[in-house]
Amino acid sequence: MAEAILYNLTADIIFKLGSSALQEIGSLWRVNSELHKLKDSLSAIQAVLLDAEEQQSKNNQVKDWVLKLQDVLYEIDDLIDESSYETLRRQVLAKHRRTRKQVRILFSKFKSNWKIGHKIKEIRERLQAINEDKNQFSFRKNVIERRDDDERLRKKRETHSFILEDEVIGRNDDKEAVIDLLLNSNTREDIAIVSIVGMGGLGKTALAQSIYTHYGMTNNDGQFQMKLWVCVSEEFDLKIIIQKIIESATGKKSESFLQLDSLQCELRKQIDGKKYLLVMDDVWNEKKEEWLHLKRLLMGGAKGSRILITTRSEQVAKTFDSTFVHRLQILDASNSWLLFQKMTGLEERFDNQEAKLDQKNSNLIKIGMEIVSMLNGVPLVIRNIGGLLKDNKSERFWLSFKDKELHQVLRQEQDALKEMQLILELSYKYLPSSNLKQCFLYCALFPKDYKIQKDTLILLWRAQGFTQPNGNNDDNYLVDIGDDYFMHLLSRPKGLGKLTNLQYLCLCPMEHMVGEECPYLQWERKNSC
């Protein structure tokens, strides 16, 4: 919901209250008990907050309740910042204090403890009263929280056109089939539309990237004069999509203040009379009229132009008047095993067929094949589970994972999508520390493919308290820990993202990759501690 501002603020405050940094501050100020009570009250209020924000426009009493809550939330947020600042100030003073100042600093410490502790208690009591007052309104508890998070993730999701060829395994037949539809099909339409349809995790975007970068797509032999890539996602906003197409065509970002009429003129100027390939990745729109508004502007291309769509929905393919639909299937057993080998590193160890495998390695292969048979040929699942197992190539660990974790998921007899979600959650749960989990989840706050400096990201983690070691606050040590966390997460499949060079990272944490398949990760991001 667009109006759910306080809901998101509440979620952020709960997250901060659960962080290791705030727990440390709570111990320092001796207010951990009050902070826990504060967090409990906030969690109870958050459960009904979406309904409250919706009702406030119709009920003045609810509006007054929401305004009181808003004031307290801002005070809590300010108090967290104030406490963090005061703690940091003390640490700086402690490093540089002299003997003659110790008495004064000690007195100041007791005074500040009392002041901040008193303020936290006063705010907590006000929040408790607000929490009790909510019962008079019979608010509905939030039952669509997961969906809201999904939609917000899809809206900010972004993809790009590049992929290394060896990253795409088992899709040669699919690639050739779609390329044939794009280049060789005879259709009555001057501009035909081809849709790649399949559930999340099958690799639709990767296939589209592989096709986009294929040498046969260039202008040689009369092929496409222009290639365009646009990630659409949940929000099918005509103006934004046109801006993205223009940016892809020119390499320059169009001015955001331009009116729609100016943008459509520029779009037609770029594509009219040219044979183009437009990839529209991750499309969710099922409203015909919204598509037709865009379609009219794209019809000026030369005969043979093509629009390639990736989507999870058959209905989207119908809405977009697809001339051809290519339905992406799961990987077969052979390609599933090849992908698993690549992700676990088994291929490097066993490529030499003349080498005699010892009993341990033979057993790992046997266990690995049994695990692959349980993953249903879904590339995203195989990549993540393979990356998890790569970190610990022991028979005992692999057997335990297969017989306990995977068996527990599969015996629930969920549908394929839910089953994939549960399996993907395992790769997150097996991150070796809570700090690593927090660092990973923090990256999901950024849009996918957002470019950020490595050092900046580590500093942000540090500011949130995610890289605090036990008993050692040395700056260089903190930087080293942040660097270790960074490299660990970067090395995992569908981890943080990809380095564009030694300094910049293109973010794509797994939560963005799977969107609605990982509600557990979204819940963890708001409630982890």
From TrEMBL:
Q: Which residues form the Disease resistance protein winged helix domain?
A: 445-492
* Segments forming domain NB-ARC: 172-344
Q: Which UniProt keywords are present, listed alphabetically?
A: ATP-binding, Nucleotide-binding, Plant defense, Repeat
Give the originating organism: Cucumis melo var. makuwa
PANTHER family found in the cross-reference section? DISEASE RESISTANCE PROTEIN RGA3, PLANT BROAD-SPECTRUM MILDEW RESISTANCE PROTEIN RPW8
Q: Where does the Disease resistance N-terminal domain start and stop, copy by copy?
A: 16-98
MF-aspect GO terms: ADP binding; ATP binding
* CDD domains linked to this entry: RX-CC_like (cd14798)
Q: What is this protein called?
A: Disease resistance RPP13-like protein 1 isoform X1
What Gene Ontology terms for biological process does this UniProt record contain? Answer: defense response
Q: Which residues form the signal peptide?
A: none
